[in-house]
Amino acid sequence: MKLESRKDFCELLFDMLNPLKPYYTKGKSGAILGHHATWYDDAAARCESFSRPLWGLVPFFAGGGEDSEFQNICLDGFRTGTDKENQEYWGDCRDRDQRFVEMAAMAYGMIFCPDKLWNPLSDKEKQNLVSWLGQINSHEVCDSNWIFFRILVNVALKKHNLSEFSADILERDLNRIDDFYIADGWYMDGVQGQKDYYIPFAIQFYSLIYASVMENEDKERCQIYKDRALAFAKTFIYWFADNGEALPYGRSLTYRFAQIAFFSACLLAHVYPFSVGVMKGIIVRNFEKWYQSDMFDNSHILTVGYKYPNLIMAEHYNAYGSPYWGLKAFAFLALADNDEFYKAKAEPLPKLDELKKIPSADMIIKRKNGEACAYVAGTHENFGCGQIIPKYLKFAYSTKYGFNVAYSNVYLEELAPDNMLCFNVNGTYFTRNHSENYKMLDDGFIINWSAFSDIKVETRVIITDTGHKRIHKINSPYDCRAYDFGFAIASRDCDNAKAEEGDNFAYAHNDFSGCRVTGGKGRVLGVSPNTNIMYNKTVIPMVEFEIKKGENIIETEIFED
Length: 561
Description:
The chain has 561 residues and is an alpha+beta fold. It folds into 2 domains: 6-343, Glycosyltransferase (Alpha/alpha barrel); 355-560, Beta-galactosidase, Chain A, domain 5. Helices cover 31% and strands 20% of the residues. It has helices spanning 6-17, 42-51, 54-62, 68-81, 98-112, 114-117, 123-134, 147-159, 167-179, 199-213, 219-236, 261-268, 276-291, 340-343, 388-392, 412-415; strands spanning 181-183, 186-187, 355-358, 363-368, 371-376, 396-398, 421-425, 428-430, 434-441, 444-450, 456-463, 467-476, 480-485, 489-490, 498-501, 505-509, 514-518, 521-526, 538-547, 550-560. An 8-stranded antiparallel beta sheet has the order 9-10-11-12-20-17-16-15, with no helix packed on it. Strand 15 and strand 16 form a beta hairpin. The model has no long low-confidence stretch (mean pLDDT 97).
């Protein structure tokens, strides 16, 4: 894959967009790409499949690109989707409506390429679009990164001097985003408090979009956003392996290469935390890694999943068009053909610390052999949108091993709890489902948590050169059994996976990775297929312990190969 010039990146974009064409509805208000359900209605899912390609098309058009077929698809979709008399109308909005998410991409188009996506509309069509978008000002949005959807809509309305613009709402929303700011460029994503990819590919991304178009009207705030982006980049870069793989952690991983959208937005806003070559290297290598995966179906449509199609790991808001949110990574296409970005050579990552504390994100990242491993406190657990516990509450997450999600807690094989301590009580398996508090140390964490109301645990995680140690102080009101798990090891037919077990260890390895766990009776567990987000078959080394009523202290060490 050659990714150097603007032409190369445009070809990559349309490699993803062109396969959508046969699936658009008659009125072009969306592309019907699948049939699984989400927690929002079908009209909103159709709206989503229309809007998300705009994240790539808008900067393409803004940078001088021409594609009359997709331009007409977009214009026709605006016409039918916002016309209440049309059977393809996207529908009226209610509080916290999914349609608000999709309005952001439409506002993006009105701001950056009005000559393609606004001016060609008739006066009536413009009014329909504005009236439909204007609903966001009369409804509640989620108290999180969603606030930026309303900010972008109001910026678009302001730029076109439309009466639906609300200066009061815009100012209130901008101030509310500031309430979420922590330090070092990090925000929390609203009242839930999580710090995950929604900081780089949502809050920081939208901040930089705002900073790139509102400098004349709001110079001071735009500079603050740019300064925060500069600070944020200094720690976010640690989430990327030398080979371009990004850290699999948290929710919304089906957006895949949205992982690099932050750096793309930096380029658009002329914010340079690193050399242009370093930023280009991060972008190019990440795209290359994704194109080595099985993220497309047989029609070259992006699937819900991560490295392969996988509804097990999906959130309840992942519709068939959801993955195209990742096209935010193409924001740099708004740059002119002769921009320094296209001339620069992709450079490797700069020298990074072997151990990096990121207090604002509740994590410590270790870098070894070019890989990134995040040790996390596990503080986010109260948002039931699909597999939240495995996405946030493991002891470690790695660019090399990925992580597993669960089918059920009835069988250990279906729970598949890599990097977790698990208890068996009366035939049912329990992992951490509540975190009480934590303390970050120079070499790890002390975490107080519970598997359920009765069993209380204090875990001391100690990061080592070879992996990490865990010391668990367990208070249990009854006798039970505990299992401590290491990293999941790929065991597909092509991986040549092998297992070794003993009284004090378990070891699983394949042709490119391995993990040894010591401390108790060893076992290598073959888990249910499709539970790991990177590899569709895995095994997990684990050690077993007998837990007695009262206080127990067990120690485990995890070695990474």
